[in-house]
Amino acid sequence: MSRFFSEKYAALTPYTPGEQPTDNEYVKLNTNESPFPPSPKAIACAAEEAARLELYSDPTCRKLAERLASHLGLDFDEVLMTNGSDEILNFAFMAFCDRDHPAVFPDITYGFYPVFAELNSVPYAEIPLKADFTVDVNDYLGVGKTIFLANPNAPTGLALCRDDVEKIVKSNPNSVVVVDEAYVDFGGESCIGLIHQYDNLLVTQTFSKSRSMAGARLGFGAGCKELIRDLNTIKYSTNPYNVNRMTMAAGYGVLEDEGYTRENCAVIIENRAYTTDALRALGFTVLDSRANFVFAKADWIGGGDLYRALKDRGVLVRHFERERLKDYNRITIGSRSQMETLLTTIEAIREDLK
Fold first, then answer.
1. Is the distance from CB of 157 to CB of 332 less than 8 angstroms?
2. φ, ψ at 205 (rounded to 5°)
3. Stretch 105-111: mean pLDDT
4. Whole-model pTM?
5. Structural contact between residues 317 and 29, judged by C-beta atoms closer than 8 angstroms
6. How would you class 267 by CB atoms within 10 Å of its CB: exposed for 0-12, middle for 13-18, buried for 19 or more?
7. To 5 degrees, how large is the angle CA 60–CA 65–CA 70?
């Protein structure tokens, strides 16, 4: 770092994104992207809007937000569009956490939570997952802190049912509970329907996964009007034009083609079941994922060794060095042909080890 870098960030450990290598053609199963292109309607809408890039985007995202609110059964001022769901999560740390309102989240979860906490000088606690990697609901009942829960969780893919999430929200009436539903479209239960019952619930989602828009950066939060008003205060104090014109238009096009999204999700769920069964037949332990990835370990090769062997053969998966995770790899569910390539490559690696 330079001699000018602020001391308040000197100890910050930034989030590490998944590899985006350009040295080879890989079967890329490491960043939970969709194997499908965006909806043709999304592409057409974005292309049309490209001719207007000399103009600022609408800071209210009104057309898109109204369309999304209608899709979700909400009002316009109960949603906030953001630059990916990472932005709405950061806004939540800024708006609802401070020295008197510390954050709490699982010790194994989305890696950006501790980064956002440290970036915003928010005290936080990490609650260990149980031995089977599940969240113990009792650990969060009446905890009295701002709670962040990825549901389904990452990198495990395990999910709490809506009733369990509601117990947590109900037991913390004076603290905001943020439910990060980035992967909910692949088999989880959304809690958006609860925001009219609980004024302390914020639900976040993304267009990156199920709607094939990872490169466009579009996310949103849903909550009561007062929470959204708080978050808009943060937004308009940082970046009013946070969603660009092409992304906004593409998001609208996606929502106009919900059947395309549902079909793609169904294929990924089917491919997840196929991959889970095949990996278990190859001697893997695979958690019961409700996301567009699986978390798996083999009894015949270490997680790091498998990651490196796959990469050498042109297949990328995500490996974590943390002690409880190091035997596992997180594997994105792609197309059937991608999953078949993964499986045949793993079979070849196992044969080479015999």
1. no
2. -140, 170
3. 97
4. 0.97
5. yes
6. middle
7. 150
The residues spanned by each domain of the chain are 19-36+259-353, 40-256
- Those residues whose C-beta lies under 8 Å from the C-beta of residue 53, and which sit 6 or more positions away, are 245, 246
Would you place residue 20 in the very low, low, confident or very high pLDDT band (cuts 50, 70, 90)? confident
What is the Cα–Cα distance from 60 to 95, expressed in whole angstroms?
19
What the block records as the tokens of 283 is: 């001697």
Task: Give the N- to C-terminal CA distance of the chain in Å, as an integer.
Answer: 47
Contacts of 243 (CB under 8 A, 6+ apart): 57, 61, 64, 81, 82, 83, 218, 251
Q: What is the pLDDT of residues 116-164, one digit of tens each?
A: 999 999 999 999 999 999 999 999 999 999 999 999 999 999 999 999 9
Q: What percent of the chain is predicted at pLDDT more than 90?
A: 95
Distances (CA, A) of 38 to 33, 44, 115: 11, 10, 30
For 19-36+259-353, the fitting CATH number among 3.40.50.300, 3.90.1150.10, 3.30.1330.10, 3.60.15.10 is 3.90.1150.10
Which residue in 130, 165, 178 sits closest to 287, CA to CA? Answer: 130
Length of the chain, in residues: 354
pLDDT digits (tens, 9 = 90+) for 232-256: 999 999 999 999 999 999 999 999 9
Give me the pLDDT at residue 23, please.
Answer: 77
In this prediction, residue 326 carries a pLDDT of 97
pLDDT in tens, 304-333: 999 999 999 999 999 999 999 999 999 999
Cis, bond preceding 152 (omega within 30 deg of 0): yes
| 40-256, CATH topology level | Aspartate Aminotransferase; domain 2 (3.40.640)
